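Hello everyone,

My group is preparing for a crystallization screen and wants a predicted model to guide construct design. The compound we'll soak is guanosine-5'-triphosphate. Before spending weeks at the bench, it would help to have a computed complex in hand. I've included the protein sequence and the ligand's SMILES below. Output in structure-token form would be ideal because that's what our pipeline reads.
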Amino acid sequence: MKYRRDIRNIAIIAHVDHGKTTLVDAMLKQSKVFRENQAVGELIMDSNTLEREKGITIMAKNTAVVYRGVKINIVDTPGHADFSGEVERGISMADGCLLLVDSVEGPMPQTKFVLRHALQQGLKTIVVINKIDRANARIDEVIHLIHDLFLELATSDDQLDFHVIYASAKEGIAGTEPNISGKDISPLFDCILDNLPPPRIESGPFQMLVSNLDYDSHKGQIAIGRIRRGKVAPRDTVVRLNATGAEDYHEVAEVFTYLGLKRLKVAHAEAGDIVAMTGVEKVSIGDTIASPEQPSALPRIQISEPTIEMTFIVNTSPFAGREGRFCTTRQLRERLYKELDTNLSLRVQDTDSPDTFLVKGRGELHLAILIETMRREGYEFEVSKPEAIIKVIDGILVEPVEVLTIDTRDDYIGVLTDMLSKRQARMIDMRNDGQDNVRLVFEIPTKGLLGFRGSFLTSTRGESIMNTVFLGYEPCRGKIVSTRNGVLVASEQGSAITYGLNNAQERGLTFIEPGTQVYEGMIVGLNSRVQDIPVNVCKEKKKTNVRSSTSDIAVKLTPPLKMSLEQAIDFINKDELVEVTPKNIRLRKKLLTYSQRLRSISAAR
Ligand SMILES: Nc1nc2c(ncn2[C@@H]2O[C@H](COP(=O)(O)OP(=O)(O)OP(=O)(O)O)[C@@H](O)[C@H]2O)c(=O)[nH]1
Ligand SMILES: [Mg+2]
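Reply:
Good plan to model first. Here are the tokens for the complex, ready for your pipeline.
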């Protein structure tokens, strides 16, 4: 067996926000891949618009640096549980990984999830205790917890002896001891070169597993992966082996390797390296590209199954077609199926109704990011309330269950446990640090989590953090009754005006401003009671010549509650939809008229 000692392939994995992308910044900046004085900013790898807006990594991405003459290919992965499909594929390119752990938070649910995957794939690990600059760092305790985690997850004894590096990614320093003496992260680079294995090379003709895809409007589809065997060059003929085992022939157009933020065009690339190549059309992640001399498929990447589903429907609101560029069934269908090429943990199915598609994903954020991306591309459609995916296993109806970890203060324990018990959560751990901070851990069916985030943030005044990670399927427990109040539903089409909205505000909380175009059946507010009520927000005050009181002259409206897309999806009930267009996010009842809704209520009785 041969090794490429001039290369290391590593994945950076961690729980959300523990500092992966910031560490990659430091690696890029300190390996001098940028010109002097080049303005590169922060979170360089979070290049996608939504990533920058939300401050989180959504897609796994490749980069590379050179240190002591060795090229280190780096895959930065997302830490949010909803994008864990990206981690699974990122790991497939690597031999080693950096497991980052925040020095204050310690190992979190997603730390365990990513480490389990890395160890199962046989990756060698370096633990990086990050954010040691934080005032309340509790390094010894965190190390202790990490040891426990490895003991639980290791698949072989040698995985237990891992190296530990202490770092402040933000300050760009790292060391082998907690009190870092150096001024850079070279101890981390040294540790990678000395302890993470170089890629092992099999002999034989070209073979590569496609782990990621990109698209270029001139070059077409770009397949990204690690070459397992042989070498590849432009104009080589290759075979693509897809999921069904079908083979087709292609000519490689261009081959690139990574350096910093660039892809470098190369004359050829060899086993062990991570490359991007063009010319192989209609390739999917998980396909193998190989030489026709020995066209055998590599095992496809194992991705965990989705846990929630929602329907995407062609827009049927009275405002359909006004704001989007792509509004038809065909356009919606094509776009959704195209997403499957790159979004590995997503599933799309046709339904009995030709204008409705069932879309399954790993969590509300996973689906919300798809919706937001499509809306920005000019699509217009409607989505239903997400629901947990129910399956039958061995004749038993089962539902997904997750571990919910909440970091909060003592004051909120009562209200949280009360809210969560109604959502069928079971507390499995509670830890207090003696200073008013408490960590609560629950097992909760996924259905109990849907719509929880909003009320969680409100009832803990934004002072708590929640994280979830998929645990497995368990026999279904009973239904959860919605605790949300009824809504204020517009009774007429038109433009909302102050007078009408003021009347609506006497009934509850409004979601729209004066001047907003509304239609009959559109949700314009939250009632303070449990029933839905129709309100006419377009209603004008009857004109009289006499002003009865000064308050009539200028009605002051309370500012409306504006919901983000995620909040809107979280908010709606089963008989409601979110209408999504490039310009607006509207909430509506599925049945638009009052009489239709009355009829359906009496039919259900
Ligand atoms: N104090 C301190 N803050 C840090 C450090 N490293 C990162 N941060 C901050 O932590 C936050 C999250 O950093 P990211 O690098 O985006 O974290 P990430 O792990 O890539 O997050 P995801 O990709 O979304 O999972 C940012 O506000 C960083 O500035 C550190 O060493 N010290
Ligand atoms: Mg990141």
